[in-house]
Recover the amino acids of this structure.
């Protein structure tokens, strides 16, 4: 098997944006334009340095937020960057796409006092972007080179965070990914208007320059087995994310124009990256001039509706079976989508799709919330005789993701998985039931967040280091004993 060459992301143009005239989009330029040094310092200076840092407690990486806010307020940006990057492998990414309203900012004491949160994420982004611009992001130079190697399956945030941490300790790192670019969902899931692709490419290039070897277009299971990787490396990390789209069965669900969210978002991201995307160019995956209905209420659904707005859809509706309060997606995202002209059809679910070969109408019915279900939210119950119709030329299903069947895919039936299909690990060590095989990120947690994937990647790296060092020490002891 010949390893394919690493291909960095190059951006020919932004995600195709043919802005619908009636909408108001919130893009990066608008949200962050005000983040000049003075503004960042003013915002950071609003931090009350409260005794109990609730922001830090609610950041999955336990970022030392109060300290880097103070340093930013004092204009000591390089030191602020050093503190913030000490616990986070991609602060410029988290600053952009963490749901801060549910994490650090949502627990800011100033916010709780009704004065508006300190804009932690924007400052984190500003400080790290400044660090890149001014050359403060130093190359990875391990103090020693080790003989041992680690194979990492998946170049998403979990795999990349682990790769960096282990490379810093001098291990030889080989990252395998079935995609043609490094970044996982950072590249092909999350839209460019939330996370610009050159930001991810810059990280990938820096990691490669630090000595990490990427093997792209390599699918573990198809091109190499897990057993082969275990032979090649001293430890293996599974960081493959979750990609099996949940589906729904209803009359007409096989009609043309009904597509899964990842198919739609990947096409849009690839187009923005300058790739040839025949299904976009033919109009099949382009929302321009169409009535679009997105089914689902999570962050992926929000990304779909906001992408459709940018592609110039005639109308964009989001159909969700619960109400606003019980929606899984970030409220900030819902607000942005509403500002951009998206219509939310709450307490509604599709029951059939009508059309001649292609979708033309979604038949939906009203729901009400009944007794609480396992998620703690009211279970949606169908209202009888409440059917209504929505015109639709493009229907996007954003119903969530499950893990693929890894033991089958990897040709490794001995790999233990949970009832949900995630890899079963010892939660202290993140090691699976197979000696030296670890797992991290969405493939352990189920669909989650980038910041949690980074946290898991870091934890797995520490555990892999301990595992390899223990084996070396034990082998040394046995060798001495044998003499
Ligand atoms: C549309 C969308 C929008 C999102 N928006 C946000 C957001 O705004 N903020 C946020 O925090 N989170 C967001 N998330 C969630 C976030 O992207 C994930 O939680 C995170 O990327 C998980 O990281 P990971 O490294 O575990 O997996 P992934 O990022 O999925 O990376 C897994 C990698 O493994 C590779 N792989 C899989 N199987 C194989 C195999 N057999 N062989 C080789 N390679 C393989 C894949 O190609 C991929 O590159 C979003 C998710 C989606 C789908
Ligand atoms: S990593 Fe996310 S949660 Fe933590 S400080 Fe940054 S934006 Fe907030």
């Amino acid at each position: 098997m010949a390893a394919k060459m690493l291909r960095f992301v190059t951006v020919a143009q932004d995600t195709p944006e043919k802005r619908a005239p009636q909408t108001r989009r919130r893009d990066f330029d608008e949200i962050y334009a005000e983040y000049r040094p003075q503004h960042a310092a003013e915002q950071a200076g609003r931090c009350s340095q409260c005794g109990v840092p609730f922001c830090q407690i609610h950041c999955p990486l336990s970022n030392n937020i109060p300290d880097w806010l103070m340093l930013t307020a004092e204009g000591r940006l390089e030191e602020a960057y050093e503190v913030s990057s000490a616990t986070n492998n991609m602060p410029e990414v988290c600053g952009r796409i963490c749901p801060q309203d549910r994490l650090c900012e949502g627990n800011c004491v100033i916010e709780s006092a009704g004065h508006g949160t300190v804009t932690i994420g924007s400052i984190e982004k500003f400080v790290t972007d400044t660090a890149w611009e001014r050359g403060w992001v130093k190359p990875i130079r391990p103090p020693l080179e080790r003989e041992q190697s680690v194979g990492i399956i998946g170049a998403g945030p979990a795999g990349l965070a682990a790769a960096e941490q282990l490379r810093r300790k001098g291990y030889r790192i080989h990252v395998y990914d079935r995609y043609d670019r490094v970044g996982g969902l950072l590249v092909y899931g999350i839209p460019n208007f939330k996370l610009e692709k050159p930001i991810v490419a810059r990280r990938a290039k820096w990691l490669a320059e630090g000595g990490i070897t990427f093997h792209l277009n390599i699918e573990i299971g198809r091109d190499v087995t897990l057993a082969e990787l275990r032979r090649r490396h001293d430890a293996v990390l599974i960081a493959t994310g979750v990609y099996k789209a949940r589906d729904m069965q209803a009359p007409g669900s096989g009609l043309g124009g009904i597509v899964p969210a990842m198919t739609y978002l990947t096409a849009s991201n690839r187009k923005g990256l300058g790739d040839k995307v025949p299904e976009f160019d033919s109009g099949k995956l382009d929302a321009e001039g169409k009535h679009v209905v997105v089914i689902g209420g999570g962050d992926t659904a929000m990304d779909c509706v906001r992408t459709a707005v940018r592609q110039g859809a005639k109308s964009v509706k989001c159909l969700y079976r619960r109400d606003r309060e019980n929606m899984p997606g970030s409220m900030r995202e819902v607000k942005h989508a509403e500002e951009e002209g998206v219509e939310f059809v709450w307490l509604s679910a599709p029951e059939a799709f009508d059309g001649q070969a292609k979708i033309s109408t979604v038949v939906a019915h009203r729901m009400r919330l009944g007794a609480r279900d396992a998620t703690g939210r009211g279970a949606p119950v169908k209202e009888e005789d409440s059917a209504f119709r929505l015109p639709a030329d493009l229907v996007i299903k954003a119903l969530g993701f499950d893990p693929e069947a890894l033991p089958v895919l990897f040709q490794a039936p001995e790999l233990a998985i949970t009832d949900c299909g995630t890899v079963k690990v010892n939660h202290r060590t993140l090691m699976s039931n197979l000696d030296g095989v670890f797992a991290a990120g969405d493939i352990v947690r189920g669909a989650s967040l980038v910041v949690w994937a980074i946290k898991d990647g870091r934890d797995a790296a520490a555990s892999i280091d301990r595992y390899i060092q223990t084996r070396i020490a034990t082998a040394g002891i046995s060798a001495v004993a044998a003499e």
User: Anything to note?
Assistant: Confidence is low (pLDDT under 50) at residues 1-22. The longest helix spans residues 450-482. The longest strand covers residues 361-372. The pocket of flavin-adenine dinucleotide (ligand 1) is lined by residues 97-98, 153-159, 176-179, 184-185, 189-190, 194, 219-221, 239-241, 265, 299-300, 303, 409, 441-442, 448-451, 453 (CB under 6 Å).
